[in-house]
Every structure is written in structure tokens, then in C-alpha cells.
Amino acid sequence: MRTTLLTPILLCWSAIFAFGNTINFKPKIKEFSTPFYLVNKLIIVQATVNQETGWFILDTGLPDLILNKRHFSGKGEQYNFQEIHGNSVSASRITIDFRYGGIRLKGREVMALDLNHLEKKTKLPIKGMIGQKLLQKYELLLDYEQKTITCFRLNRKGQKLASTMMPSYPPTDTLSFELKCHLPVVKMKWGGNLFRFGLDTGAGINLVAPKQSNLLLNSGYKVVKVRLLNMDAPKKAVSRKVINAAKLGNHILLPMKAIPCDFSAINANLAGKDLDGILGYEFFKQQKVAINFKQRKLYLWSNALVEKQIFVQKEEQ
In sequence order, which residues have a C-beta less than 8 Å from that of residue 166 and are 6 or more positions away? Predict the structure, then answer.
């Protein structure tokens, strides 16, 4: 049976929050849009560190900005810390200036780790990863159909300062979400019950906790080898299954590939109610999605392809 490789899915280290004060440029750009590339189901964008532009992964499952230690070797204070599974990780602390679109940081102290595994999977010189902390003052609009990311600066009440780049038609649904530490969490109706799923653009496939895995449908998808939640763990062969007939609010979701995963370490080490799963690429590709981190609102717009597929499914029943 043929196997394929799946990029490591979720990088969550509480130590990322342990740095000093941040000095920010005052933002002058109220809204901006940038293109992105999908490589192994990861969002790849261009950003600049100390006037040097390179490739970054945008990952809402990551708490903060981190750099690839390989491209910043010999810089900053060297130290080790324990990640959530208890493994020791070597890192550096580096003070940088950073720019992504209209987001500018000056004198920011960040962590640099070995991200060589991501360079091997993407075959790109990955300079770092952009996490949730850089995006929390924005409403983030993700359009996988057009492959664009649009950021809208928010005021103190979470209202957009400009909205000329918003879709011309209203969202099909609006949902509230909670946070588990830095991770947005929505309630998904599935199998007659509501479950708590985190939203993570860095997840190449959806994850489901063992207690809910009996709801997964078998499929003809190939077996994959994957590191789950821990980049140092050995790869494990798992069968891809399907989340079927799930809904967010009134928003009908198409069948999504998923695999079972143990969430005990994540649930124990990240503050907030326990997760039942993670929604990643398989969810985001289905529709336009906007995340407002200040108001904790999620907006969904069905794209034409999804609406057509749902219509055909209803006709066939």
C-alpha cells in the first residue's frame, strides 16, 4: 500500500509567549491584500525580516512569529526549552524588524527554531512562520479559491477601519468563537451533537479526538505517514477517513478528510476547554473565511463550487 508524507500539523509552544516587550510601528495601512501559494496544503507568503524578504508559512495554530534557526544561525541568545510533549528544543532569541503587508514590527524579540522539516516538505527556503499574535488586531479574510489573504485593521471595539476589500455580497453565516489559548474554537454540529473544533490553517488534514473517531466514515483514501502535533515524534501510519454531514451554524460543510489524533497533551497544556478536533485545510478550502480576533467572530461565504456541489447532492437524495 502506497504511503505519502504529511507536513507536521500543529506547533504550539507556550514558551513563545515568554519574551520581552514589543515595540510596534504605528500602522498606517487600514487594509491590505497579499497573494499566497499553497504548498503541501500550507499557506506560503512573502514577508521581510531586517530588510531581507523570504518565504513564510501563515499558521493560525501557532501562537506567535517564529524564525527558522538555519537562516539566522549565530545570532541571538541560545537556550533550550520544553515543548508541550516534554521534549527539549534548542532555540535562539533574536531581536528583529519585521514586515508583512501592512503589519510592521520594530525591535521585536522572537524565537528561532530548526524548521528544516518544513523546508524539506515545501522545497522552499522557509524563513519562518507567522502566528496568531501578529494577526489579533486584524480581521483576516482567507480566500483559498483566489489564493489571497486580506487583513482589515480593527479599532478597540473590533470594528474594521476600512472595508473596501470585503466581498460585495454578505456572508452566508456568522458565528461566535472562543479561544483555547491562542486557537479559535468553534462548535460544529456532527452526528447529532455539538463538538469543539479548533481552527488551524497549518493543519493539512482535519484531526478528530479518539472519543469522536467512531463518527468518522471509512473511505478509499490511501494510508498516510504523519507526525501528529509533535515534530520530533516518529511518523505514524494512519488511515484517512471522512467527516460527513457536519454543519457550522446553518452552514453545510462538504465531506472532509480527517484522521484520529490524541489531544491529551494539547488539552492539558493549553488553557481553555478541551478540544474534540482541529479543522484545517479541508475546511478552509470550501469557502471564504474571515476571522475577527477582537470580536471573536467567524464569517463564512460559500464559493460557487461548494454551492454547486451541495445543490447536486440535494438533487441526488
Answer: 141, 150, 152, 160
